[in-house]
User: Fold these one by one.
Assistant:
Number 1:
Amino acid sequence: MIGNFMETIRAAFVIARRDFTAIIFSKSFFFFLMGPMFPLGIIIVAGSLGSQVSRDLDQPVIGVALSAEQSDQLLVAKTELSKKLGDRAFPELLMLPNISPDATDMKSQLDQDGKSLNAIMSGSLEAPLLTGSARDVNRWKGKIALLAETALSDTITVPVKTDLLAQTGSSNKRNQLLTAQAGQAVLILLTMILAGMVLSNLVEEKTNKIIEILAAAIPMDAIFLGKLFAMLGMALVGIAVWSSLGVIGITAIGGNWGALPSPAVGWPLFCIFMLLYFSMAYLLLGSLFLGIGAMATTVREVQTLSMPVTMGQLLVFFLAYSSITKLGDPIEWFAVAFPFSSPFAMIARAAQMDNIWQHGVALIWQALFTMLIIRFSVMLFRRNVMKSGPSARKNGLWKRLRGA
Amino acid sequence: MTSITTENAIEARQIVKRFDGDTAVDGIDLTIKRGSIFGILGPNGAGKTTTLRMLLGIIDPDEGERFLLGSSDPISKSHQVGYLPEERGLYQSMKAFDAIAFMGALRGLPLAEGRKRGRQMMQDHGLGDAADKQIRQLSKGMAQTVQLLGTIVHDPDLIILDEPFSGLDALNQGKLERLIRAQADKGVTVIFSTHVIAHAERLCEEIAIVAHGKIPFTGKVSTARNRLRPQVHLETRNLDGPWRSSIPADCEPLGHNWHFTLPESGVEPLLHALVEGGAGIQSLSIERPGLHDAFVHIAGEAVAKKMDEDAARDSLGDVA
């Protein structure tokens, strides 16, 4: 049993080494490395779209700690102004009746993550105090003044005092959400670009009849596994080159690395998880694509299969992306548990939750599922392409199960 | 996985293979001893390749069981086996010596050792200059030689060659025959399939005749030939006389020539009767039947004709 497994791994590395060197030392690999110039543009567009989505999904909430009478006046003013300027023009107002307008612990109220408040308006309508992060306070100061002026039905300008704090629970969450989105976007993009290449990976062997030599010499699982390893290796080389160029480029133009919002698990671990989850996403989707591609007999068939496969990929990515703001919801749990979306959902978790052990469980689950897909793909390949009969091993197992 | 302790390189019991309802191999029994050169003869489509693929574990039979070097899981014995498929295939971008090393590595030979042996083997076969060329730069014959060397680079105990002579010119066919003999001299079991009887007749100690997915004969070449009586070719001065009773009654002359099967009594009584009976012998030859005659006798006229056509097509392909 262990001997068989070791032989499969040994044989897989023979295949992987051949494929890897054949790819790396080919002229086309240079063009492959140049490829991301186009996706780079897509990343920039997707990033701005993502931030728009983020703004849309994350409706800001301002806590209101005013007297009951002034709170009502403020709500009436917001309703009036919203009719003219639209609902999205103002933040959501959450009344905080239990907090005194003159309380001095507004910062501590903000730091309680559960409330998800961007800022708190306290004091009075005539002299409001806005407490929050510099980003949120600067964003909403004008609107708060406008609301107060409308509530007072006065023409005088209301001066809004501000009390700034370094980071609120909400802004921390939002930053981590941005990291989650960025991490997931990178993972999705890389997987989308690179995993699809596996689809046509067995065509050469089939058209050149090399498959016959391979199938007679090593277990079919080793062929599939070796091809996946080679393609993963090639993808990692590409990523290493692109990342290095990216780091050099950003540093050269004076980019501030310290300004990046820190993920919940910290940057070093997050980077490791990015690598691991990319590998798992690649192996999961790659094994599926390899299995599908192996059924195809010509390059044309592979091309025909590419479209539905890409659609399937997109569905998985949408699932993961839609669950990013719904940590702990059933849809997010589904994205975590569903093997193909699991790596993407988990990298979002790594950005937003500091729980480490869940990643170990997820990685094991994803690895097991990869092996399952490979086994299933091999079974289909042997039966449908190689036209093999029932496996001798299976027969043996069946006999043993029957006690024969 | 089942294994049996056996002196046999191959043992197949009632193996059956169907493709889309058509039976390609229909309950074959086959036993091949270690250390022999064994030929599998039959026309294209008889089931030779399917049989070999099942024996090697490339595909599993629908029914029956097979053992390769004593194991029911042939892939587990792949380090001891070399296989040259009928449809040759190599990675076109690989260098020749690397292709040999890769094929060895698949079967457990360390890559560095494979490269060293690959270069040496190419040198030994007069292809030293081509060792660093890519496969796509080699002629068809050279590429076939590279693949053959890759089949034996890891010093296997059992070599299985599917139609190895197909596509080779006479010179390379001769080289291949010498290589097969050299391997057999080292104690390696060599099994090859062919639709050219002459190769089997020259090389094999034992053969299996495959026709319509079945094996109507398996055994020694001499046993197959002995199934037929020797043929007598006689030329006489006289067309009639007492001597006529010594040859089959239904034998009709072609001019003064007579062709008939040697009577059970043997050569001496026949010769005596011909001389004593006044046949006036001009010439007399007794021919032992060849494997081709035995094949026709065992597999039938139609199968033999089909195989002759395959062989002719093959040689035309070589010329082309």
Number 2:
Amino acid sequence: MTSISDATSGTAAAEEAEEAEPVWRSRGTDRRSTRTIRVYTSATLIVATVLAVLLVPPAVQLDQQAIDLSAKLLPPSWEHPFGTDDVGRDLLLRCVHGLRVSLLVGVAAALAATVIGTAVGACAGALGGWVDRGVMRLVDTFSSVPHLLLGIFIIAMFRPGVWPVVISVALTHWLSTARIVRAEILSLRSRPYIDAAVSGGASRWRVTVRHLLPGVLPQAALAAVLMIPHAMWHESALSFLGLGLPTHTASLGTLVQSARGSLLAGQWWPTLFPGLFIIVPTLAIAGLAGAWRERLNPRRRSELML
Amino acid sequence: MTSLPWGAMARLAGRRALFAVPVLFAVTFGVFAVAAASPFDPVKAYGGTAALGADQATLDRLRENLGADEPFAVRWWDWLTRAVAGDLGDSSVMRQPVAEVIGERLVWSTLLCAVAFAVAVLVGTLAGVLAARRPGSWFDRTVTSLAYSLEAAPVFWVALLAIWLFALQWDVLPAGGLTETASEQVSAGQVLSHVVLPAGVLAVSQLPWFILYVRQGVGDALAEDPVRGARARGLSERTVLLGHALRSGLLPVLTLVGSRVPELITGALLVESVFSWPGIAAATVEAATSVDFPLLAALTTLATVAVLAGNLLADLLYGLSDPRVKLSEL
């Protein structure tokens, strides 16, 4: 955990401090080695998660919905590592299936949000003038409504389901990407190679698509990856409130939601494990993305990213 | 600070209020546009189960009375002019006027959020300073890893585990609600014991952000020249840390406090529903589950107002705490 935690706040600040290291400041372990460990740990966790999610459901021929009332609410054991729920379903299997659904929803929503954000940000940055002002005003207006509340409103109007969840998460998450892409494009526009392209007779469209957008893609891709945990978080929050996926579909949010009854009866395991399945991928993605961001732009001061 | 620049502050607030008008117009318009695009039917929502057996003529009359046939822009304008006069319509799920629902519940939400925010600021500052004092120490490592894990943990999950631990295992705090189920009266002592757990969980959900920012701010300040100068003059560690590093390190954090309102509202939405806290956030979730459009529209607008007010607060704090910034330029 320590290795991941240093991912964002520690590194760039530490590097800045490295030149003017005050004598009184003691330091723990070597930063460089912890950073390597952090990246490998995060990468291993992500690979493990993706493999588990992709391979386990088709490979293991077990029915996650298999009910066994004689084995209901069993605490964790060798046979059921995460225990069983209130109708005797194996929670490990349910959690893996739930992670699969949550991850799919998260990736789809993050991709959609990135496409919207990149398109809007590129339009604003490349066209400038009143388009830019209007679009940025729109972004400001959108950010004045809390994301989860906007998501709740959209779902309430369109009724819960997989697609409304994806759409509501995408519609509330493109703002930051649009801001990042616009800022990048504005800074790229003043580069000499853009002047060269313009004086070479390239059209505005060609300059934007061939010269500006490729320069923005790494930042947009990073934003997309960082958005996956956010999107998963939103999906689980909506599902938990009963405004997300239908209860019979195992997602991390619906698992916690349906565990509420047994929690109040004192059984903690149906609640604990789905939550851990949200935390671990989030930290792994943050750890890896932190290292990636450092690569992209080592001089920029690190920000907190979750 | 002897006297505050009240004039400049008022002018900034006035400018922000002018800016807020178009934003609120746009947000409410958007709310009505989304409702118009959705399969939501105001007549069915108004009639509820009674509308199922009603004959067509009654339904048509109801439709006409509700103005549901008008284009949504007209209905939006109607709603807006009435809302300015204080009439926000009737909530079908609460069975009372929307303004009354908000009036009754706003107090409890404010109480919850204020307690949680105060706890988060105090504990966050303390932990952040202690962690920044010795970067890389076991305390720093424990605090930062805990902060990152908590930031990644869903609030509702933390809330449920807190109920399990404090209400079920140890039986020291009530599991939810505002008062004991048996009691009719709302007494201060009962509210106090019931607010501890939800406010604690909400504070924990806001805490990681504070800890990490204070740690970074104070850590950066500790490496700067004024602090080195203070140490060279032989000032005590305490004076250096609290008088020099914390003061300059806390500045950026303070200014971001107001911009945390959306996260606070998000946290309150989840915490209030888990703990059955009778606030407006829990009412929002209920309104959404039963598609109570008048209540939902009013609460979305209210949340937007809160966010805009938070932004204003952030700017005011920024202008007041940093003498290099002029309020008139914000």
